[in-house]
Design goal:
319 residues; alpha/beta; 12 helices; globular
Length: 319
Amino acid sequence: MMKLILSFSKLYLAVSFFSLLVVNCATVETPNRLRKDIDLQGHRGARGLKPENTWPAFEEAIKYKMVTLELDTVLTKDKRVVIHHDSDTNPIICQNVDGSQIQKKSLYDLTLAELQALDCGSKQNPNFPKQIPVPGTKLLSLEEFFELVLKHEKKSKEVYEFNIETKFPDDGSAPDSLVKEHTEKLIQIIEKYKVVDRSTIQSFDMRTLSVSKQKNSKIKTSALFVPTYFQGFLMTIGLGNGYRETILGLAKEKQADIISPYFLYVTPKFVKTSHDKGMMVIPWTVNTEKEMNRLVTCGVDGIISDYPDMLDKVVRKKN
């Protein structure tokens, strides 16, 4: 997916002069939002600044006063919920503690203890030159994450929201039983830490949303969508409304509280239609000031970014 998203970004820049003519939200009246303030979310904590999905990254999001901490989860061999983006280990961002290269291996074949034996902070992600390594950083279980956040909240008197994604193999091979087990365990932990009212479960796999609504309808759900390269191209040049209508219909069918598309989907009409259907709009992953400003004028309810510092500067300090 990363290669696809990078291609979208290059495409978006290449034809931005045209897209400004057809989807510039600043030329229209901002629709009424369903929430009072815009929801600023640090993607994978703060992937652009610190090692993704680790406590240093979440601390960075907290530093820049993000409203919501966004994170990914995978179920391990011993049925623990670990905070990690891929369903396989990632040699680009993790290594053995002695500095040697790790091999790509399914998290479903590894225990939480085996995963926490890795160093996932020493290697800088080459796609994020501003990212500062934190050597020796370990992966977190979801329980450990909540313990750390709640400890910080008690000390700082601040309160955060959580946007938690369920991750499965990209090839769509996850059986119904795995989706159900992962989602149910996630909900059990959310209930255990009494954060139901400030948690969202998001996924590209719509089965997660269905299980979540059945298990605990009080937890908000968010439907994630990414376009194909061709769809992204059409939307970049101001076309592709049919694709927008399709994902809006699917999200509504799954009773999603939030629709969370790749930012190219978002136009004033898209936001208004989502609001008319009772869904908030929180696009991802928005990493330029220009796009942040465009989306704010569209009336989005939130923005997910790898750069909480930029979100704080552009969105919060602007409003």
